[in-house]
């Protein structure tokens, strides 16, 4: 049982955390037909490409500032109820633009949700603005420029998500230069769908302190040594990896091997209801599927706080709550 353990999550996509029941209520409210994407209380997809399509489709039922406040407050409330003290949410102001709400109103809604959740439950949260590879390099530069100019104290990081097989990391280098110059923390999805070359590309081009997933680095011993030596933190999402068939089962998943090789690892849920998981389940899996003791799990959580995109004063306060 890991219920008593304090928890931290560094890698969760906000719209990917939308409970199916809330999405259904939203779809009814706006009279949007999502029957092909949400059936019998579960999101419908069959591979990585159709997962991304389903994700983009269901995101369309969240339309207003208040919708985003409610979605954020709901997810953070769920996290707090299982002992989570800190959460980083991956958000797409670009999505706000695409649905006609606008990036500022989208972010304002999310920030309102964070405020409500912190007031109700004490959970601390920060935002990582993401670009989506499948919308192309220009849109990713736009997302970086937005994050850099926002001067919003809750926006503390920049990420690149979406279709990993589209283009190479170098195509998105400019976006990361903009985010780095603005002092944002950098993380990037790599080594999830694509092999070790994508992790090496990310390290060479972006020089991030963290990598989203990164688990396929296990296929290259020298790369695993490089991750360990550089102290790059991996945001590992085991339930997501199994649902997306990156590995056939938990026995084949490299979380433990990476940790034993000296790589700094953390655990997160990625897009929990899409992958029939939750942060609570990921912590349970750390114990039941990977055999970590409570103190080893606390180490993962501590690594999460050490790698969090927060100011040093906030980090100190959070570490003291562990
Ligand atoms: N697991 C994932 N990989 C890449 N992009 C994503 N967007 C939402 N979830 C994602
Ligand atoms: Zn992700």
From TrEMBL:
Binds 1 zinc ion per subunit. CDD domains: ADA (cd01320). Residues 7-321 form the Adenosine deaminase domain. GO terms for biological process: adenine catabolic process; hypoxanthine salvage; nucleotide metabolic process. Zn(2+) binds at residues 11, 13, 189, 270. The record marks 213 as: Important for catalytic activity. Catalyzes the hydrolytic deamination of adenine to hypoxanthine. Plays an important role in the purine salvage pathway and in nitrogen catabolism. This is Adenine deaminase.
């Amino acid at each position: 049982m890991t219920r008593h353990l304090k928890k931290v999550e560094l890698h969760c996509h906000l719209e990917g955390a939308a409970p199916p029941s809330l999405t259904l209520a939203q779809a009814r409210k706006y009279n949007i037909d999502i029957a092909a994407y949400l059936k019998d209380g579960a999101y419908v997809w069959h591979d990585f490409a159709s997962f991304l399509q389903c994700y983009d489709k269901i995101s369309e039922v969240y339309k207003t500032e208040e919708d985003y406040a409610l979605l954020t407050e709901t997810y953070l409330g769920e996290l707090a109820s299982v002992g989570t003290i800190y959460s980083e949410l991956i958000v797409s102001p670009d999505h706000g633009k695409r649905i006609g709400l606008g990036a500022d109103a989208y972010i304002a809604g999310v920030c309102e949700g964070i405020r409500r959740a912190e007031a109700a439950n004490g959970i601390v949260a920060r935002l990582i603005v993401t670009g989506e590879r499948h919308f192309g390099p220009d849109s990713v530069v736009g997302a970086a420029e937005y994050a850099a100019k926002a001067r919003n104290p809750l926006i503390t990081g920049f990420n690149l998500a979406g279709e990993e097989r589209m283009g190479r990391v170098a195509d998105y280098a400019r976006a990361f230069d903009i985010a780095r110059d603005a002092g944002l923390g950098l993380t990037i999805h790599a080594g999830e769908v694509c092999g070790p070359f994508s992790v090496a590309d990310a390290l060479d081009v972006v020089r991030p302190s963290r990598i989203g997933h990164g688990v396929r680095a296990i296929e290259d011993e020298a790369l695993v040594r490089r991750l360990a030596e550089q102290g790059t933190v991996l945001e590992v999402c085991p339930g997501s990896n199994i649902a997306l068939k990156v590995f056939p089962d938990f026995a084949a998943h490299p979380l433990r091997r990476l940790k034993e090789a000296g790589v700094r690892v953390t655990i997160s849920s990625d897009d929990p209801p899409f992958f029939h998981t939750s942060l609570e389940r990921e912590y349970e899996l750390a114990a039941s599927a990977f055999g970590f003791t409570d103190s080893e799990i606390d180490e993962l959580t501590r690594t999460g706080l050490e790698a969090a995109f927060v100011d040093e004063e906030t980090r100190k306060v959070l570490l003291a709550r562990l």
